[in-house]
Specification:
Strand content: 5-15%
CATH topology of the largest domain: Aminoglycoside 3'-phosphotransferase, Chain: A, domain 2
Helix content: 40-55%
Number of domains: 3
Distance between the termini: 36 Å
Largest sheet: 6 strands, antiparallel
Number of strands: 15
Strand order of the largest sheet: 1-2-3-6-4-5
Oligomer: single chain
CATH architecture of the largest domain: Alpha-Beta Complex
CATH class of the largest domain: Alpha Beta
CATH superfamily of the largest domain: Aminoglycoside phosphotransferase (APH), C-terminal lobe
Structural class: alpha/beta
Amino acid sequence: MQSASRYRERHKTAMSQSKRSTPRPVAVATIDDQRRVIALLLTPSTYGLGVDEVRRIDTHSAIVFLAGDRAYKLKRAVRYDYLDFSTLESRLRACADEVRLNRRTAPDLYLGHRPITCGPDGSMQIDGEGTVVDWTVEMARFDESAVFDQMAERGKLDVSLMPALARAVARLHAVAEWRFDHGGRRGMAWVIDGNADGFAEYGPGVLDPTACQRLTALSHEMLERQADLLVARRPQGFVRRCHGDLHLRNVCLIEHRPTLFDCIEFSDEVACIDVLYDLAFLLMDLLHRNLGVHAHVAYNEYVAATGDLEGLALLPLFLSARAAVRAKTSATAARLQSDPADQATLAKSAREYLDLGLSLIDPAPAQLVAVGGLSGAGKSTLAGHLAPTLGAPPGALVLRSDLVRKSLLGARPMDRLGSEGYAEGVTRSVYRELAARAATATAAGRAVIVDAVFADPRDREVIADVARTVGVPFSGVWLDAPVATRAARVTERRHDVSDATPAVLREQLERDVGELDWQRLDATPDDATLARAAGAWLAGRGFGSV
């Protein structure tokens, strides 16, 4: 399980009372305090053979007992402005909700909620005979070093984990309950106003008041510009019962799979949100840790999995709001510290989050880049190098023709298509779809890189027209390489979505690509050298960087 410091961070973003349905009636007895329950859970013999010691971890709303290969979480009998665990019934409800909601993503971790019972002789047990006096959540323990924030701190969070992580988030959002009564303009106004209140109360002496006021004002301006979109997304099903606390501390690697856990169970206001606002916490956390490439990969994979392009206009607001929440909670924690060193550390963190929030709310403008060239020229490699550096964080959206083709045909990325998948009519549909997606994403304010062959002059003209229509800068890059180089690259590909073969390349070479007015670059240097050359050329054209 997680360490004490990580559990103590739990629920810091929550600001209001939760709303839940009434659980099934149970026969219970109320006790005045939880001291006997705590004593029971601290006793190794409570758990049977093989448990020699019990570790206790305290948070403001729960106590976690680590015993053998299990963890038991006891909800404290407390009431705050954003949660109420003061009654036995409310603690049962919270335990049941925690198990139910977290089983969406971590069914093997959340084993169930267990009663603490008191028998006629006054003895207590977990799940024994007698009267129920309290409830716990039973979890399987896991390797703390496999938690993603720990891996990131050790420099061991491999970017190769990001696609699987993004897909896990997308799967959660796909099955999460629709909530038409939350989110929208009102939901984001509640977040912004809560941040502003926190800045006013705990910011002085920690955060620059002018910067706080500026962030609040810019956030409200962005909110008003995007109000219609925020409202429209509710009936479209984009507001759901999400994770609510989706950052690296709540992701672990279990059996080589990124696993989301410890979602918000106690507050509908915090958890019933726009799916992109849920994703934004993860992306913001990665950006704050200077893991921009990780954030870019996760962002692209999530959008590829969901197709949510119009909603991308909300990312600056969502990312900034997440950073602002962290600035507020860090400032609050700093003011409450008695140790000067701890206070200084938290104050520094608060200022970093505030600076990040200000940078995210005022993003770089949209732009459109097309990368073309015959098979084996290195288009996808170059696009992957350029994308994290272009446009607003977390970088450019990459639209790859190979993936679009397969999605249109209902195939999986690694499926091999037959010749019918490359018929002229299919290819025309692919380029129309690329143009349509590029138009939607750039209109939403995002930088876009379109990765396709673009051998037909008509396709080059269409993608340039997208930029003219939307009103964003456009640059076309054409990669040249000797035939032998391209053929070798195609032959050596492994585990790639491209179906290109040397035979496909030979067919391409027979085509007349027409007059090229795109920037031609020699693709024979190593990847890094080519990326620097392309990046320098784009920068010279005034294309903004992350």
